[in-house]
Structure formats: structure tokens, C-alpha cells
Amino acid sequence: MRIVFLLVLALGIGLAGFAVYVVSNQFETRDQQLARIQQMQQQAPPPIETVDVIVAAKELSYGDILTANDLKVAVWPAEFQPEGVFDSAAAILEAVDDRIIVLRAIDVNEPITTKKITGFGLDAGVAARLEAGKRAFTIRVDVASGVSGFLTPGDRVDVFWTGRDGRSPVTRLILDGIRLIAVDQTANQDTNRPIIARTITVEATPQEAAILAQAQSSGKLSLSLRGISDTTVGGAVEVSQDDIVGRVAPPPSEPEPEAEPEPEPEPVQRTIRIRRAGELSIVPAD
């Protein structure tokens, strides 16, 4: 009996020790997790500073009149807010009588910026797109010269002039990287249908407008479409008929050597012949 009792006692002590060990491990694991959480909280980045930004409450299309129902406030990281945003609807809708027109498509929750809407009281026309100091100038084009069907407002093109420089025909780059603001009578940048243009309207300085007017009246203008990210400067580009057919201009002839001046003729001496008694004598006439 004593042996059985001792065995039961030893087994009980062993089970109790195992239970204490398991519980101790659980407490230790919990303490480690709590320490890890506290460490992560201490290392967490500081809270992000935010600002109120006015965004579109629904999809807006070109030409829509902006109203208060189209706007809502969204929280935006202050460091990454787009340029030209508004912090309140009142900053956009200053007066009831003002009409604000959408210049390009705006998606839901997209910030409203000054570049996407017209100024207060303006229509979504060409005048609203002109920068300060710029003018709108219209160029006549056709299917070939107008980059058939590929031009849309907002594109940039190079303008080539073909005419006569003296007696020989020549094609010359006169303006590069000029911006289109309308194709025919369409100023919508979000149009997705091809337009076979008969006229295009470009944004130009007064000097550039004068160049285009003179070039259009003295020859033919052609357009070359630029890539979206192309900001290179075209430089001087000119092609003549000789460049096309491969004719090489003759080298300049060397100047002939100057002839030596001829010596002046000696003066002729005049004489008089006198015959006396059969003898001939010659004496100077002077």
C-alpha cells in the first residue's frame, strides 16, 4: 500500500509540476507579445497631417455646369494634395449667378482643380483656355496637312511652311511645339472620336500669330504631331528640291588670278626726213 501511495504521490507531484511549467510558458509568451506590441506602438510613424479637399460627388463631363450637388469634401494627405485644389465648396461657387463649366472629364472622388474648370462666369470656350499673353490663331488644313483625324485639343504640333524662297521651292520649320486649343469648332479635350479637321486653332504669341499669318498667305502650312512627352526643340529645319533629288551644288569656282598690267607703250618719236644733194638726213620733229 505504501508503494502505491508513494507512486500516486509522485505522479501527482509530476503532473502539478508540468501544469506549472505550461502555465508559466503561457504567461511568458503573453508577456513577450505585449512587449512586442508596445515596441511596435513606440516605433509607429507619426499621424499623417490631412486637409479638406473638394472632390467630385459624381462623374462630370466636358461642358457640365458645376453645382453644389456635384461637390463633396474629402480628407486628403496635406503633403500630396494636387495643385490648384479647393478646401470648400464656397471657394468654387462664390455666387449663385456665376456659371462654372467643366473643361475635362472628372471621375468620382477626383479633386476639383483650377485647370479642370473655367473661371467664374466664363463659358467652356476657346477664350477660357488661353494663357496670359497668348492669342488664338486659326489655320486652314485638309486631310493631309492636318494629320488626318489624329488631332485633338491639347495636342502639340510642329508647323511647316512650303513656298518659294526666291526662285526655288523650299519647306521650312517655322514653329515647333505649338499647342492646339480647338479642332474645327470643338475644344473638348476628352473627345474620343476622330475629327477630319478643316481648321485648327492654335495658341500663339502675337509674334507667332504674325508669322503664321504671313506664312499662310505666301505658301502652304502643314502640321506634324508631337508625342505627349516630347519637349525637344526642333531647331532649324529646311529642305529644298535639291535635298530631295540628291542634287549637289557645284563647288564655288576659284577666282581667276589678276592679270598683270600691260606696260604702257613708249611714246612715238616723230621725225623729219631731209634729203640734200642726194644725202638723206633724219632730224627730230620737235
TrEMBL record:
Residues annotated as signal peptide: none
Chain spans, region Disordered: 242-286
Coiled coil: none
Domain SAF: 51-118
InterPro entries named in the record: Pilus_assmbl_Flp-typ_CpaB, RcpC_dom, SAF
Biased segments, Acidic residues type: 255-265
Pfam families for this protein: RcpC (PF16976), SAF (PF08666)
Name used for this protein in its record: Pilus assembly protein CpaB
Organism (species): Rubricella aquisinus
Lineage summary: Bacteria, Pseudomonadati, Pseudomonadota, Alphaproteobacteria, Rhodobacterales
